[in-house]
């Protein structure tokens, strides 16, 4: 057990003691004098069930770690994350990229839990792509962007639950194998139904497949990998107002003859559209764009490129 100190690099799994309490890291970082564990809930979580102490016996220390280990991971609606946030983030500020904020504001957000919701989602098992290769600034930017997507998705879902659909399609936030009613069905493999999903990943919002039979509920394709996702948006819709339009190769939106439904975007802003493509006799949902040479579908730990596919479009 080591005491917390400023000017120290702390990594995943680290536990420190500060003012008689033990804290476990939430977000890896290099400590600063005014980022003590008791005032930075986005960076440190205090081990549960403790009384203030000094150098507890090994049995007590082991028990405290076990209590933390068996706590239920926070979900996308984590009350803990909300209570940890001690700074207000305005609607307009939430639209900005992390790099557009000045250094003082970034520091306020880090100290005051302004990244709490994104950090809680990562701590709960949301996949962080090659985070070991990213700088602290890049990790913070990714956490901020993940949180922004999460907040926007929650707002869309709240509006849908209050007012119902406002158009032919609606993205709603869900978790695990919970498939909402009216989700658009794409394919069927024996008893396995596939639906259209999307999720934030490595700076973009990627389109993929969802099914109650998948391990985490959903999977997206990214850089030739199938990434399993447990918190995602699923597409609800009325197919009477939609249609599937044939396409091949790089998507030409102007040649479709109908307006395509936007699915997400790459980290550079390139728009991604919803595609379905056949592979080994089964239709799978995936993505297409004006940059990709065909549709890409997540399939058995990788991505498959399919030259000919269909794009989901509005009728009108």
From TrEMBL:
The keyword ATP-binding is assigned to this record: no
Protein's GO biological process: carbohydrate metabolic process
Gene3D superfamilies registered for this protein in UniProt: Carbohydrate-binding module superfamily 5/12 (2.10.10.20)
Electron transport recorded as keyword: no
Membrane spanning stretches: 109-129
One Gene Ontology MF term: carbohydrate binding
Compositional bias per record (Basic and acidic residues), positions renumbered to this chain: 60-73, 85-94
Name this protein carries in UniProt: Carbohydrate-binding module family 12 protein
Superkingdom to which the source organism belongs: Eukaryota
GO CC annotation: extracellular region
Residue ranges of the region described as Disordered: 30-94
Organism: Crucibulum laeve
Domain Chitin-binding type-3: start-end pairs: 1-47
Alphabetized UniProt keyword annotations: Hydrolase, Membrane, Transmembrane, Transmembrane helix
């Amino acid at each position: 057990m080591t005491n917390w100190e400023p000017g120290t690099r702390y990594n995943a799994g680290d536990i420190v003691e500060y003012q008689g309490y033990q804290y476990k890291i939430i977000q890896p970082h290099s400590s600063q004098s005014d980022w003590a564990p008791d005032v930075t809930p986005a960076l440190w979580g205090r081990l549960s069930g403790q009384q203030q102490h000094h150098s507890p016996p090994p049995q007590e220390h082991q028990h405290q770690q076990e209590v933390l280990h068996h706590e239920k991971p926070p979900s996308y609606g984590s009350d803990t994350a909300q209570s940890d946030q001690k700074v207000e983030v305005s609607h307009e500020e939430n639209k900005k990229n992390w790099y557009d904020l000045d250094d003082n504001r970034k520091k306020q957000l880090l100290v005051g839990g302004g990244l709490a919701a994104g950090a809680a989602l990562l701590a709960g098992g949301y996949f962080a792509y090659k985070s070991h290769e990213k700088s602290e600034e890049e990790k913070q930017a990714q956490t901020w962007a993940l949180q922004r997507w999460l907040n926007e998705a929650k707002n869309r879902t709240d509006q849908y639950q209050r007012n119902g659909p406002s158009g032919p399609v609606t993205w709603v936030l869900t978790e695990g194998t919970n498939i909402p009613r009216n989700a658009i069905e794409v394919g069927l493999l024996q008893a396995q139904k596939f639906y259209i999903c999307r999720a934030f990943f490595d700076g973009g919002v990627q389109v993929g497949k969802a099914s109650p039979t998948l391990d985490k509920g959903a999977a997206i394709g990214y850089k030739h990998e199938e990434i399993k996702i447990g918190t995602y948006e699923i597409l609800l819709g009325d197919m009477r107002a939609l249609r599937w339009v044939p396409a091949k190769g790089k998507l030409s939106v102007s040649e479709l003859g109908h307006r395509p439904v936007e699915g997400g975007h790459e980290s550079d802003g390139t728009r991604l559209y919803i595609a379905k493509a056949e592979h080994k006799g089964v239709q799978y949902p995936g993505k297409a764009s004006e940059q990709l040479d065909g549709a890409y579908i997540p399939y058995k730990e990788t991505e498959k490129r399919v030259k000919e596919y269909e794009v989901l479009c509005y009728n009108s």
